[in-house]
Amino acid sequence: MTVGITDSHCHVWWDQFDADRDLVLERAREAGVRRMVVVGTDVETSRASLDLAAREPGLHGTAGLHPHDAAKFDEGTRREIEALCQRRDCIAVGETGLDWFKEWAPRDAQLDSFRWHLELARSLDKPVIIHSRDAHEDTLALVQGCPGVRGVMHCFVMGPDELPFYLEAGMYISFSGIVTFKGSQANQEAARCCPEDRLLVETDAPFLAPTPHRGKRNEPAFCADTLRFVAELRGTTAEHLARVTTENASRLFGLPPLQAGHK
Ligand SMILES: [Zn+2]
Asked: Which of 48, 49, 202, 206 has the CB geometry, 3.0–4.6 Å to 9, for a possible disulfide?
């Protein structure tokens, strides 16, 4: 792999990586994953994402409040998230979104928080990272209610029927290990027909390890497995898809191109 893979979404600040974080990052680079977007889920972990990214080449941090944490959405949190998102080294707003599947935070709080993040992303002219589980219609309505916002549907688990709406709304589509699972036919069909210039891949580590690592702790190195799987679905090479998805990530997140190299 000469170009380098971009893992467009991982949480390598998680305490599950505390014991071996350096090795995890080294294995990622060995596997060709030379760039990782490290995503914050509340004030503390957003700070941790940005701090980690400041220390590690190829890592870039974001700041936001996860829908699971939307109960913490108050004036103080808003102020802190906004200040973090304004930092030059913060490449995106999020993750934010709606989760009607787990519903760990009240729906009203999730809706308020998501709307606020969308407006913030638009006003800062930074991309927004969107989590959406069992909430297609509400997610789309809020995105459409914020025209001009751009961003990524992270861990896109929907199918070809929903896909066009997000493309139309200007979103990039990021596929995770879920696309490799047996039983993910609709999601695989979406990965097959997604326009090449909107496609991204991610791990969402430490969650959702792709086949053949399913059930284990996920780590950015496994992004190479998802990339290979999607390349095969689309009848192209992993090399080609790495180049394209890395270019897409550069365009979306405003990152310099990854130079070709051996690792
Ligand atoms: Zn995530």
From this structure: 202
Mean pLDDT, residues 78-90: 98
> If you measure from the C-alpha of residue 145 to the centroid of ligand 1, how many angstroms do you get, rounded to a whole number?
23
Q: Is the pLDDT of residue 263 over 50?
A: no
CA of 38 to the centre of ligand 1 (A): 9
CA of 130 to the centre of ligand 1 (A): 9
Q: Ligand 1: distance of its center to the CA of 200 in Å? A: 14
Say how many Å lie between the CA of residue 175 and the centre of ligand 1: 12
Angle at 262 between CA 197 and CA 57, to 5 degrees: 75
pTM over 0.85: yes
The pLDDT of residue 262 is 45
**C-alpha 206 to ligand 1 mean position (Å):** 9
CATH class of residue range 5-253: alpha beta
Ligand 1 center to 168 CA (angstroms): 23
d(CA 127, CA 81): 15
Question: How do residues 208-252 score in pLDDT, each as one tens digit?
Answer: 999 999 999 999 999 999 999 999 999 999 999 999 999 999 999
| CA atoms of 67 and 112, how far apart (whole Å) | 10
Residue carrying structure tokens 């997140």: 253
**Residue 57: cis peptide before it, omega within 30 degrees of 0:** no
3-state secondary structure of 128: strand
Give 11 Cα–ligand 1 centroid separation in angstroms. 7
Task: Kindly report, residue by residue over 39-55, the tens digit of the pLDDT.
Answer: 999 999 999 999 999 99
